[in-house]
Amino acid sequence: MNDKFLNGRVAVVTGASRGIGRQIALAVGAAGAQLALVGRDKAMLAESLELARKAGAQAETYICDVRDEAQVRKLADDVKSRFGRVHILVNNAGTAIRKNVIDFSLEEWRALTDTNITGVFLMSKYMVPLMRGQGYGRIINLTSIMAHVTSTGRGVYSATKHAVAGLTKALALELVDDGITCVAISPGFIATDLTAPLRADPAKNTALMAQTPMHRWGKPEEIASLALYICSEAAGFMTGNDVLMDGGWCAQ
Question: How far apart, in whole angstroms, are the C-alpha atoms of residue 49 and residue 58?
Fold first, then answer.
């Protein structure tokens, strides 16, 4: 692939302030895409912006809570005003609460489902109209190995990720005639800020690595490389599927 094969493309990345979202944004920006960096943490988003611009990417930041329809609608208007169109949408924003299903309060349930499912729905609803009519489009939804398996304390999170995987399939079929593909990525245990407490706990870290056939944590850059491939013309026949990158976890 040409190093700048995304020249002329516009990418909207949610959860772009850190971790996997930041690395995906930097990867597509390095490949030539103009970036709309979306998140809620203004300071961390500014760091992502600085890194993107240092790498030569044209980028802007947008503070937006993907759970809020009015904010997402305004985001779409602002992105259209600045960039005119969208080619790539990365739905990465997400959250996790670890506790058994029946121990969840309704407020906690809604906090998880509103971010992990409703956010993907709203971003897709308002960004897809900016993607149509170009003969090319990519929607990448970040799911998890918990879209394939589950464990004690991860039930509600797992349910949200199963839902995103199903939504990915539905969008893929609905948008196929527009030339827009929709692919999910299911990471395993990746070394990010979100997993820092697990990595810092010797017992939990040892247990997780023992269950991971490759016996190491994944890197955000590895997920970003997969996302970059999905954005390429080489992946034009890939849609409606969920790609695992989990060090072999789900193969067991």
Answer: 9
Alpha helices in the chain (DSSP H): 19-30, 42-54, 69-83, 106-113, 119-131, 155-175, 196-200, 202-211, 220-231
Side chain identity at residue 213, one-letter code = P
- What's the pLDDT band for 12 if we cut at 50, 70, 90? very high
Catalytic site residues? 157
Bridge partners of 59?
35
- The confidence band for 1, taking pLDDT boundaries of 50, 70 and 90, is low
DSSP three-state, residue 183:
strand
Question: With contact defined as beta carbons under 8 Å apart, do 48 and 17 qualify?
Answer: yes
Per-domain boundaries in the chain: 10-191+221-245
Per residue in 136-156, pLDDT (tens digit) is 999 999 999 999 999 899 999
Architecture of domain 10-191+221-245: 3-Layer(aba) Sandwich (3.40)
The residue written with tokens 């003969």 in the block is 135
Rounded-to-integer distance, Cα 223 and Cα 186, Å: 9
- Using CA atoms, how far apart are residues 48 and 110, in angstroms rounded to an integer? 28
